[in-house]
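Input chain follows. Return structure tokens only.
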Amino acid sequence: MIDFRPLAFLKLIRPLNCLIVLGSVAVGAVAGGSLNPLGSVFIAGVSACLIAAGGNGLNDVFDVKVDYINRPWRPIPSGQIREVEAFWLSVVLFFLGIITASIIGRHMLLVAIGTVALLVAYNLKLKWLPLLGNLTVSTLCGLVFVYGGMSVGKTSGALIPAGFALLFHLGREAIKDLEDLRGDKSVREGTVPIRFGPKTTIKVITVIYALLFLFTLLPFWTGLYGWLYLVAVVVGVYPVLGYAIWSLWRDSSPENLGRLSRILKADMLVGLLAILLGSTRI
């Protein structure tokens, strides 16, 4: 009989998300102005991936009651992994991520410790505070780019993609809250859809992505990013955001919300490419 537990542990840490984190660190370094020293960028990427993987596992531990309703196929509710196993795996991954960050220097170590602390606080309390939980996750997603900039000692340029990521993930997190409304409501109150209703949440998402439309034009208008950046954004990002907003108003069923969340996740790769083109002035 084949033991599928290693695959279940891999599913727990969400390897695709970790790869996106790795790419974001590299893009943050390029946006900062350099990939040198390349070794530091690689170490920062590994550290960020380990911390992200630990955060993914910890999220499943704290969300297990909700996942029994919303995502019963996940490793813990499906019985493939025990909660205590997922918890200790997350602790080990956090520890390894922090130790890896310390190789680069004290500042990276402090950021890594702060990131882990925020992830723990998010799962313990912040996720159930309207919008604050979403802002926490979105800020951490933006921080990944700053992490990349820090690895080469140039953080200012990384703030632009960090801002993009914050708005992009803030909208996507609200979409995921809408998708999880039934399960979240059965456990406790706290998310924006529970407190203010689905229609208000859709309006908030629309405003967030409208701001993202405007914000992504600023680097081109100010001459920081070139024409290929603009082309990549107009062709590969704007249509997806526009479609997501249109589809949200048309169909807010959990099935469609899950589909939109996956589409937006795939579009992150296009966003990374656009930032890379802009940062390298190709």
